[in-house]
Amino acid sequence: MNPTDNSLATSPAISINGTERWDIYHRLQELEIPCKCPVHKPLTVIISSPNHLIQLWSVMRRINASRQELIISLETNWQIQLDR
To answer: Would you say 19 and 37 are in contact if contact means Cβ atoms under 8 Å apart?
Structure first.
């Protein structure tokens, strides 16, 4: 991530509050999605491509979904693959 990159300044940003923001922040860093998480401020994510948006959705879903929701999703995906 290059904080001086001016092309990111014009991209829409998403702010995330809550205790899970640090988990989301670290995962987005691993995925090389530009974001910042100052102390006592919301996580800000720069979405510059559809791929970044899908990855953000996936990370947030994994962290915020209940265990039962994740189990159902996994079972559904297994069923879809078995049907092929």
So the answer is: no
- DSSP helix/strand/coil, 65: coil
User: Across residues 48-67, what is the average pLDDT?
Assistant: 91
- Which stretches does DSSP call E strand in the chain? 13-16, 35-36, 43-46
Burial class (CB in 10 A: 0-12, 13-18, 19+), 5: exposed
Q: Which residue has the tokens 């979904």?
A: 65
Q: How confident is the model at residue 80 (pLDDT cuts 50, 70, 90)?
A: confident
Residue closest to 12 by CA, chosen among 36, 42, 47: 47
Are 47 and 14 in contact, with CB atoms under 8 Å apart?
yes
- For the CA atoms of 69, 70, 76, 78, the dihedral, rounded to the nearest 10 degrees, stands at -160
